[in-house]
Design brief:
With about 120 residues, this protein is mainly β. Helix content is about 0%, strand content about 50%. It has no helices and eleven strands. Strands 2, 4, 5, 6, 9, 10 and 11 form a seven-stranded mixed β-sheet that branches. A four-stranded antiparallel β-sheet has the order 1-3-8-7, with no helix packed on it. The chain starts with a strand and ends with a strand.
Length: about 120
């Protein structure tokens, strides 16, 4: 499956952005989806996870209550709604797809990755 992340941009602290991840080339509903991010000079880190049916979601503590992950299997897309953004949320955000039932926060559990979209939050 191929993944295309979009929706990043420059926003002021306290603002909102909605990232999208468009999937193609596979049966989207077969994949669990995750969002990760990588800030300058830091390792890539887990942000959010959603299972096939949207029943199960998980979030990093740093974004819990501010970010919401969702998916629309009919549109072959996953989303990350980001509210109350902070300068420390500045990073390149990646969507990833997992075929099977591996861990939800480990990078190694994901089989496919999008190219990333830049999110910059100004103070």
């Amino acid at each position: 499956v191929q993944l295309q992340a979009s929706g990043g941009g420059l926003v002021q602290a306290g603002g909102s952005l909605r990232l999208s991840c468009a999937a193609s080339g596979g049966t989207f509903s077969n994949y669990r989806m995750g969002w990760f991010r990588q800030a300058p000079g830091k390792e890539r880190e887990f942000v959010a996870f959603i299972n096939w049916s949207s029943v199960l979601t998980r979030y990093a503590e740093s974004v819990k209550g501010r970010f919401t992950i969702s998916r629309d299997n009919a549109k072959n897309a996953a989303y990350l709604q980001m509210n109350s953004l902070k300068p420390e949320d500045t990073a390149v955000y990646y969507c990833a797809a997992q075929y099977g039932s591996g861990g939800w926060y480990e990078e190694s559990a994901y089989n496919y990755w999008g190219q990333g979209t830049q999110v910059t939050v100004s103070s």
